[in-house]
Design goal:
- This protein is mainly alpha-helical and about 450 residues long.
- It has 14 helices and two strands.
- The protein has helices spanning about 1-30, 40-55, 55-70, 75-95, 105-130, 135-140, 170-185, 195-200, 225-260, 265-300, 305-340, 350-380, 385-410, 415-459; strands at about 155, 165.
- A two-stranded antiparallel ribbon has the order 1-2.
Length: about 450
């Protein structure tokens, strides 16, 4: 399944990159949205988008590999790989941005640096998944048998079609046997391998070793052998695609309104605000992936009181974490945004406009932790239909409210960046309330089903 997902990701990335590269001129004109189009700015933006489109195949595969690692409760592997990729990106920026060539320096140089880092991360992920460290190979073969990655996975579900619960029980049992042999061994140079030490290893390291080579993993011609596996992905295509498009529609419309109607100072302030926002948002966005990693294991358990209690406790704990992260981010926004803004510009008018956006940014990020926890929990419980419908509605509703601001600005009414971010924060509050309300409703439904099961068993 992992290999099939990576191959499908490569095809999706190639298709998306091709569409983005070809449609970039039209998309940029739509985004800018007015006739005052500076040819220099337009050409620079066009080069940037077209170069970045070359990295789309790597970006999609990296995202899939990262999600697979998190699904295995492995947070170390993505950290190592993406940290190295960030280093490549930084080095590329330092070397290429100052180049005088329009296709190699400036914005184009920054785009090339990002593309190089994406393919560097792709190669590192492929090697990481297919090459097992020597230390791990030695510990696996101490009992006379080299463990294959799939041997450490045990299916504990009674009905595979309904519940899929993956544990690492076999790895623990093998570790117990291994420790007994080590304790009873008289060899002086044998290294003791304990369960705690094995748990410290990155679980995705060498997961596909012995069965795949680095580049055979992404061979799309072999997808014809995995038709049954591909069919398992089809139910997720529409919900996930709708969700992804719905998420970005608000950001795209914000940029359109800022560039086409708000004026030079507000546009510059919006660019600073969105840059700082994108630096702070990943702090809480990670909670979404954490919830998606932990909730499915609980949700896949056999229906009963223990499962319902575990889901309730998990949701409450995640909500507490989300609220805590949101509070920290609000404090960071209030204290750091004014200072960070001075790193982008010294223009007092632009800095004053950035301050107008701080309340909206603070409200959005303050609720973002709870929103991410709610969304991750819903995804972990396979509530894809609800998310699909909600994001399909947001795809039309959020831009419609944003475009009302544009019409007001074009009619001479004072509309600034504060109103823009304030409207966007209302969208976040509504989304958070809907997500958490849905989680509560699902929990009540689960507990009601358990009560009915217990009542039926008692009679």
């Amino acid at each position: 399944t992992l290999v099939t997902a990576l191959r499908l990701a490569l095809l999706v990335g190639v298709a998306f990159g091709a569409v983005l590269g070809c449609a970039a001129p039209t998309l940029l004109r739509m985004l800018i949205g007015n006739s005052s189009l500076d040819p220099t700015v337009y050409q620079s933006a066009l080069r940037y988008v077209q170069i970045r489109s070359l990295g789309m195949p790597a970006a999609v595969v990296i995202g899939t590999a990262q999600s697979a690692c998190l699904g295995m409760k492995d947070v170390k592997s993505p950290l190592y790989v993406l940290a190295a990729a960030a280093g490549i990106n930084l080095l590329g920026d330092m070397l290429m941005v100052r180049n005088a060539s329009p296709w190699l320096g400036g914005a184009a140089g920054a785009a090339w640096a990002t593309v190089f880092s994406q393919y560097g991360a792709l190669l590192m992920f492929l090697r990481w998944l297919t090459v097992k460290s020597k230390k791990l190979c030695d510990t696996d073969s101490l009992d006379g048998h080299v463990m294959e990655p799939m041997e450490i996975i045990k299916d504990t579900s009674k009905d595979v079609r309904k519940n899929i619960k993956v544990t690492f029980g076999n790895a623990y049992e093998r570790g117990t046997v291994l420790r007994k042999k080590l304790f009873s061994s008289n060899q002086p140079n044998v290294v003791e391998v304990t369960k705690s030490k094995r748990n410290k290893d990155a679980l995705a390291k060498g997961f596909l070793s012995g069965t795949h080579k680095p580049f055979s993993v992404l061979n799309p011609t072999r997808l014809t052998r995995s038709k049954s596996t591909i069919k398992k992905f089809l139910p997720f295509v529409v919900p996930v695609t709708t969700t992804s498009i719905g998420r970005v529609s608000g950001f795209v419309t914000m940029s359109h309104v800022a560039s086409s109607a708000l004026g030079t100072f507000d546009m510059a302030a919006h660019q600073i605000a969105i840059s700082i926002f994108c630096c702070l948002a990943p702090v809480v966005d990670a909670l979404n992936q954490v919830a998606q990693s932990f909730v499915p294991g609980i949700f896949a358990r056999e229906k009963g009181r223990a499962r319902a209690v575990a889901l309730r406790k998990t949701s409450i704990n995640f909500a507490k974490v989300g609220a805590l992260f949101g509070s920290v981010i609000v404090a960071l926004v209030a204290t750091c945004v004014p200072a960070l803004s001075k790193c982008f510009t010294t223009d007092p008018i632009v800095l004053s406009r950035v301050k107008n956006a701080i309340p909206g940014i603070a409200v959005f990020l303050g609720f973002d932790g709870l929103m991410c926890i709610g969304e991750g929990t819903l995804l972990g419980q396979n509530d894809l239909k609800f998310l699909r419908n909600m994001y399909a509605a947001f795809f039309f509703l959020v831009p419609s409210f944003m475009l009302r601001l544009k019409r007001r600005a074009l009619n001479g009414i004072d509309v600034g960046i504060g109103a823009l971010w304030g409207t966007f924060s209302v969208y976040e509050v509504v989304r958070t309330v809907l997500w958490l309300g849905r989680v509560v409703w699902l929990q009540h439904r689960t507990e009601r089903e358990v009560d009915e099961m217990e009542a039926a068993a008692a009679t």
